[in-house]
Amino acid sequence: MRKQKYKVWSEKVAKWYLTLLLLFIVLLVSIVITVGMGAVAIPYDRILSMIIDKVGEAIRSGSIEPFSAQSLSSEENIFFNIRLPRVIFGVLVGIALAVAGGVMQGVFKNPMADPFILGISTGSAVGAIIGMTLFASLGPGMRPLLAFLGGVLTIFIVFNIARVGGKIAIDTLLLAGIAFGYFLYSLEWLLLIVVTDSPHEILSWLIGYLGNAQWEDVRYAVAPVLLGTFLTFMFARDLNAMLLGDETAHYLGIGVERVKKILLILASLITAITVAFCGIIGFVGLIIPHITRLIVGPDHRILLPSSALFGAIFVIWTDTLARTLLAPSEIPVGVITPLFGAPLFIYLLVTRRKT
Amino acid sequence: MTELEVRGVDVYYGDLRIIKDFTFKSDKGEFIAIIGPNGSGKTTLIKAMGRLLKPKVGVVLIDQTEIFSLHQKEFAKSVAAVPQDTQIDFEFKAIDIVIMGRNPHLGRLQMETVEDEKIARDAMEMTGSLDLMNRPIGELSGGERQRVIIARALAQQPRILLLDEPTSHLDINYQIETMELLKSLSEEGLIVIAAIHDLNLAAQYCDRLIMLRSGEAVAIGKPDAVLTADRIRETFRCDVIVKRHPLTNAYYVAPLPKKRNSIQKSMIRVHLVCGGGSGASMMHELQNKGFQVSVGVLNILDTDYEVAEGLGIEVIADAPFSPISEESHQANLRMIERANAVIVAPVAFGFGNVKNLDACSFALTLGKRVFLMNEALNRDNDFTNGIAVDKLSKLLEMGAEVVEDLKEIAWDYL
Asked: Is B96 in the A-facing interface, judged by CB distances under 8 Å?
């Protein structure tokens, strides 16, 4: 009898695992479905036989040679080298942006924080443009590296503008983010016009487009995004405590200022990686943690991993929408996400003002 | 046994020296209140002990160890705190909040165990908030939320509990509940240190008081030693009386009204016959009109005597529980000679004070006006087998007037 009394917590944890398992299954199913969708539709039995054929071939030959463009039919090529990396990169982008948004909402104790709204995405874009133009000679790594520096610099500038006497006023934070974002936006365009000969090529990337994603990009992005995401999970309990106020968090044994800095750097890192490879996809970090919080509650230990999975699902489906809606022409996914995000932001603005 | 020591501490906000050379020690479970006016440094002192502010001079030690040399989590295992603002916007359940108190005991990726849940539940049981376990924290009332927050602090299993104004936003019933809880925790060995606004709550529940004035400890010690009228006057800049309350046996402090200079001083003198608290409100009212008030004859220790003393009213009084002496009676008559009017409060008359009615008839013979409050004529107030009633009716025959309220008296025509 007494033993049963104390089962609330373990039941809760079991529920968490179940939620994550469910979301993971939905993600896998989503990947399989969306990979077949696009300008060229690939039936699922074809996908299955292609995978079995090619993976079998690769195992027998002991190399990845069977996946090179020369040894693939055009359908196989679309599947393995265009569609699949695009969907996988969509998964990474969804994870990164949703987690970055969730972390920022926790750090700033406000559901309106988002890497795009606070200017991090634009800051990263400026960094990435510099990396792919002025410093292009130093290698392809400069693009994500400078995107990261741009993002971190932006968040600390915005953070310090908004901090008055050790406290962050959320309206000042949002205004500072939006205003500084506009400044960066100008900078971005100046760079595009002054430094590059073909702004259109860069523009198609900048607006948030997953169609350029290649396996090489996935290889660059996968480690920082997954590692960065996992590291933020380690601070989930700290984020919970910080929701009770910085002072309370301090008394619960948390080095509040240090944790905030680490988390903002991690959030900037994972945001910057996505921006470096596929431009600015706004509002994912606003929408996903918000909806996830309504479903799983405010505890970051379930909120952050669920947001990651839900974000991945959301991005691959919106990207599928983007490439099928006006097929054969494509809409960049960065054009689609604000259609969902901006109304939610306005809704939050209005309801918050009422309370 | 835990030992908390604050040794010669100076705390600054920027260039401002807030806490000045503060030294204090506690080595057993006790309930200590920090009292002092706004801006005297109560919160700052709490923050210095809670490692939120580092002293520029001096050290805070727990069991001989300087607190800033401890790891953050180690410190949180010893010291828990309830900060001033306990508003929580996010939709956590009460139990979630309390379980967060286990944070210092858990590793970064460690999950709470059944044991942690038990500790959290026990803490809620202790603060009487177990029923609230599954309620969202945002829906709780101020008092309920405070109990949950204290339970969270207890779930840390600290040896020292700091609280900044734990009762200031609470209704009186929750104030008492909170103070009782903190008291019982201190009796179980916890060092409880709270900044408390209300001197009476502090006096009633705390073992020791620390009185601060502009960051300096004016006094540290037992409530009766710390709370003297003089010290409170100097520290809080207001006049008070300090008394031991007969029911609670605790010292209590009551403010005396500031002497108002704006009141137009009147030349009218009014003498009041009262006792047992019947005249207190009238004394205030008459004094507020600017009249010069006198009272007599009373017993020392009578409530009205204390009020008169406190208000600085001339009073003729005899020793406790003794009948009016001839000497006092004569003094009373001298007082009445100087008065323009005499008022009889609804006081109970016994053989001890019935002589005051003779003084009233003396006033009438001098042509002074005498007003009897209607209630004074109530037979239930007569404990002299009718003597007082007889004297009162005689007063009426002689021209005494009956009034319901002081407002009925046309003072300008006296």
From this structure: yes
User: How much is the ipTM here?
Assistant: 0.81
Alpha-carbon distance A306 to B147, whole Å? 32
Q: Are A275 and A128 in contact (CB under 8 A)?
A: yes
Whole-angstrom distance, CA of residue B302 vs CA of residue B257: 20
Q: Mean of the per-residue pLDDT values for chain A?
A: 86
Residue A207 confidence (pLDDT): 85
| Segment holding B17, helix H or strand E | strand B16-26
Instruction: Kindly state whether B85 is in contact with chain A, defined as any CB-CB distance less than 8 angstroms.
Output: yes
- Supply the pLDDT for residue A86: 92
- Measure B117 CA to nearest chain A CA, in Å: 7
Q: What is the mean pLDDT of residues A209-229?
A: 90
Report the share of chain B in percent with pLDDT over 90. 51
| pLDDT tops 60 at residue A5 | no
DSSP A79: I
Of A9, A245, A248, the CB nearest to B114: A9
Higher pLDDT among residues A44 and A178, named by residue: A178
The answer to whether B106 contacts A237, with C-beta atoms less than 8 Å apart, is yes
Could you tell me which of A249, A248, A269, A271 has the C-alpha nearest to residue A258? A249
Chain B closest CA to A26's CA: distance in Å?
26
**Which residues contact residue B154 at a Cβ distance below 8 angstroms, ignoring those fewer than 6 apart?**
B80, B101, B123, B126, B127, B161, B185
DSSP label at residue B40: S
Identify which of A10, A235, A252 has the shortest CB distance to residue B100: A252
The pLDDT score that the predictor gives to residue B162 is 96
Report the residue of chain B nearest A230, measured CA to CA.
Answer: B109
Contacts for B122 with CB less than 8 Å, ≥ 6 apart: none
When divided into structural domains, chain A yields a total of 1
Q: CA angle at residue A238 from B63 to B90, to 5 degrees?
A: 120
**Domain span holding position A180:** 2-354
Predicted confidence at residue A234, as pLDDT, reads 94
The answer to whether the peptide bond before residue B297 is cis (omega within 30 degrees of 0) is: yes
A62 lies within 8 A of chain B by CB: no
Global pTM value: 0.79
Taking only residues 280 to 309 of chain B, the set having a beta carbon closer than 8 angstroms to any beta carbon of chain A reads none
| Cα–chain center distance at A327 | 25
Residue A353 is predicted with a pLDDT of 58
Cα B239 → chain centroid: 13
Which chain A residues in 276-335 lie under 8 Å from chain B, judged by CB atoms? 297-299
Residue A12 belongs to domain with CATH number: 1.10.3470.10
Residue B86's pLDDT is 62
| Rounded (5°) CA angle B238-B241-B247 | 140
Q: Domains in chain B, please, with CATH?
A: 4-255 (3.40.50.300), 269-413 (3.40.1190.20)
In the structure, what pLDDT confidence band is assigned to residue B169 with cuts at 50, 70 and 90?
confident
Contacts of A297 in chain B (CB under 8 A): 91-92
Structure tokens that stand for B166 in this block: 């734990």
Q: Which ranges in B323-409 belong to alpha helices (H)?
A: 326-338, 355-365, 387-397
Cβ-defined contact of A253 to B72 (cutoff 8 Å): yes
Classified as helix, coil or strand, A12 is helix
Q: Tell me how close the Cα of B80 comes to any Cα of chain A, in angstroms.
A: 6
φ/ψ (deg, to 5) at A26: -60, -40
Cβ contact A251–B83 (<8 Å): yes
**Residue B193 touches partner A, C-beta closer than 8 Å:** no
B50 and A250 within 8 Å at the Cβ level: the answer is yes
The whole-number pLDDT of residue A4 equals 46
Q: Measured between CB atoms, which of A240, A247, A297 is closest to B52?
A: A247
Q: How far apart are CA A281 and CA A242, in angstroms?
A: 28
> What's residue A2's pLDDT?
44
